[in-house]
């Protein structure tokens, strides 16, 4: 098959929520290496993410979760298959905040606004509005070294939102944070997702995090990554990571994940 990557701006005037899907992956394969020694990373991934849906990708280290996210972001191309993001290029938030330390929090956000084409006269006000949205009002002039780890991730989130996309890709953005800070940011991303009606594709290896946040959890098998199973999460939001419903479903998913890891080890 010939690889195809399709991203197109919406010129129809139809709202994002009227599209049949926000992200569509059709029989996506990805290999790395030269012919003859190429190693398959993703194998025949087909997945539709609905507008406004929150989906988590879960799997063991090395199963291709981040590779899949990079493909959707347009940072790499599939070896075969196609990827469609009808609303245009998604916003991407990495595990590391990747803020420029010589810029203030506000200027880091403004840089994304400039790249998104926001006029210079409007950037500061919009950056301050986005910092308010992530509960960092008053932090516009703070340097990166003045911010805690959780605050830096909030700035990184504001910068991602500044890109103006309705699709947000998040690659283990809270993995390096302590449990309490991560719990607070779970509340924040859930709130912002609901307020902004975002489509979120969230990569994690933390089962409880996946269940707490998502409407749907996708489990990838160990390399090559295939969709092994999915769960639709009917628990009402907001959820607590320690709640009985989250805990019970996390146990079930963890057992499936352990089974995938064991199958990989045996082979």
TrEMBL record:
It comes from the Bacteria. Keywords: ATP-binding, Nucleotide-binding, Transport. The keyword Ribonucleoprotein does not apply. It comes from Kitasatospora camelliae. Residues 23-247 form the ABC transporter domain. GO terms for molecular function: ATP binding; ATP hydrolysis activity. This is ABC transporter ATP-binding protein.
């Amino acid at each position: 098959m010939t690889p195809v990557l399709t991203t197109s701006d919406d010129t129809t005037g139809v709202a994002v929520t009227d599209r049949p899907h926000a992200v569509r992956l059709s029989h996506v394969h990805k290999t790395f290496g030269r012919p003859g020694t190429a190693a398959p990373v993703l194998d025949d991934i087909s997945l539709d993410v609905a507008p406004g849906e929150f989906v988590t990708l879960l799997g063991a280290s090395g199963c291709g979760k981040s590779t899949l996210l990079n493909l959707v972001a347009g940072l790499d191309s599939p070896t075969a298959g196609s990827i469609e993001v009808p609303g245009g290029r998604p916003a991407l938030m990495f595990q590391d905040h990747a803020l420029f330390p010589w810029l203030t929090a506000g200027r880091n956000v403004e840089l994304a606004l400039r790249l998104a084409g926001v006029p210079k006269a409007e950037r500061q006000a919009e950056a301050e509005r986005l910092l308010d949205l992530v509960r960092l009002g008053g932090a516009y002039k703070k340097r990166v070294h003045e911010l805690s780890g959780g605050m830096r991730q909030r700035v990184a989130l504001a910068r991602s939102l500044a890109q103006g996309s309705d699709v947000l890709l998040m690659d283990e953005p809270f993995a390096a944070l302590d449990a309490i800070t991560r719990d607070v940011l779970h509340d924040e991303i859930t709130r912002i997702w609901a307020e902004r009606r975002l489509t979120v594709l969230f990569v994690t290896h933390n089962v409880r995090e996946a269940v707490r946040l998502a409407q749907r959890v996708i489990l990838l098998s160990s390399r090559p990554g295939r969709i092994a199973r999915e769960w639709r999460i009917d628990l009402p939001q907001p959820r607590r990571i320690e709640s009985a419903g989250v805990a019970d479903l996390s146990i079930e998913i963890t057992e499936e994940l352990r089974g995938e890891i064991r199958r990989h080890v045996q082979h």
